[in-house]
């Protein structure tokens, strides 16, 4: 059985006060969400504060990105060992906003997976097609390349300690959600692609759906066979909405 995972990607939002209030609200409600594993990924500058508040509780801490390097002259970057030092357990890699606005390509995402795992962080590796790619029938080709970069770089064994998130770019922050059938089809494609290399790893891999998930649409998405939880953006900034999504698992 794959334990459902719900990860909140807070993106570049919040203040010290709002982050504290959000975490407090999540902790109050988290007690009755035993089934799903919960993770929150605040902006890097709030990680220390979040770590202190979440310490010993039921919600795990994650980061939104990490450097492929462990230390050194990389101005503005945050290294995996720093995140691990603060008790982060997860890190998002290859989010479509990193790919689009920071030029991250499949090879870099693969190196970030290795960098994360080198310090015991579980990577949440994001893949997904743009609207143009979907409409031209290229969805499987694009996602196949994104998954193959992980299989050819870190290797299929690395996926035993990783999470994959399918996030159609056209569904992120747009209010457009993939239908449960559209999402399930891509999730099954991803699992089959990995299964061709290692069926056991593929069977155990958690594949999250992301893109305008809300409390209202989460239940039907989470009943699909190959959807093992969600990577939540906008709705993760509201404690009650996030908890509603967690309870839908
Ligand atoms: P959204 O973002 O839920 O706001 O669409 C999801 C994500 O980018 O991870």
Describe this structure as you would to a colleague.
By secondary structure, the chain is α/β, with parallel strands linked by helices. It has a single domain (5-247), classed as Aldolase class I (TIM Barrel, Alpha-Beta Barrel), CATH 3.20.20. It is 41% helix and 15% strand. The longest helix has 16 residues, at 180-195. The radius of gyration is 17 Å and the shape is globular. The chain starts with a strand and ends with a helix. The structure holds 2-phosphoglycolic acid. The site of 2-phosphoglycolic acid has 13 residues, from strand 8. 2-phosphoglycolic acid binds at residues 9, 167, 172-173, 210-213, 231-235.
Number of helices: 11
Top CATH class:
Alpha Beta
* Oligomerization state: single chain
Helix content: 40-55%
**Cα-atom radius of gyration:** 17 Å
Unique bound compounds: 2-phosphoglycolic acid
CATH superfamily membership = Aldolase class I
Structural class: alpha/beta
Overall, the morphology is globular
Instruction: Output the CATH topology.
Output: TIM Barrel
Q: Which strand order spans the largest sheet, edge to edge or round the barrel?
A: 1-2-3-4-5-6-7-8
Share of β-strand residues = 15-25%
Q: What CATH architecture do you see?
A: Alpha-Beta Barrel
Main beta sheet: strand number and arrangement?
8 strands, parallel, barrel
Task: Report the mean per-residue pLDDT as an integer.
Answer: 97
* Spatial gap, N to C terminus: 13 Å
Uncertain segments are none
Number of E-type strands: 8
The SSE string, one letter per element, is EHEHEHEHHEHHEHHEHEH
């Amino acid at each position: 059985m794959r334990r459902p995972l719900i990860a909140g990607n807070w993106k570049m939002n919040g203040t010290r006060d709002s982050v504290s209030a959000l975490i407090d609200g999540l902790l109050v409600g988290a007690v009755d969400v035993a089934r799903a594993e919960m993770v929150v990924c605040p902006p890097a500058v709030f990680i220390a504060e979040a770590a202190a508040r979440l310490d010993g509780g039921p919600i795990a801490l994650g980061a939104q990105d990490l450097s492929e390097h462990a230390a050194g002259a990389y101005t503005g970057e945050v290294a995996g060992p720093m995140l691990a030092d603060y008790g982060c357990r997860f890190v998002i890699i290859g989010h479509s906003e990193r790919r689009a606005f920071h030029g991250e390509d499949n090879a870099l995402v693969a190196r970030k997976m290795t960098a994360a795992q080198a310090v015991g962080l579980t990577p949440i590796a994001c893949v997904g097609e743009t609207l143009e790619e979907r409409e031209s029938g290229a969805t499987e080709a694009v996602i196949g390349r994104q998954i193959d970069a992980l299989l050819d770089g870190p290797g299929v064994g690395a996926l035993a300690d990783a999470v994959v998130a399918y996030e159609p770019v056209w569904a992120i922050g747009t209010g457009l959600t993939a239908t449960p059938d559209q999402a399930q089809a891509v999730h099954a494609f991803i699992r089959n692609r990995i299964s061709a290399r290692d069926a056991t790893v593929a069977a155990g891999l958690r594949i999250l759906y992301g893109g305008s998930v809300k409390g209202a649409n989460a239940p039907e998405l989470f009943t699909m066979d190959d959807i093992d939880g969600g990577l939540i953006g906008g709705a993760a900034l509201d404690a009650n909405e996030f908890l509603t999504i967690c309870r839908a698992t």
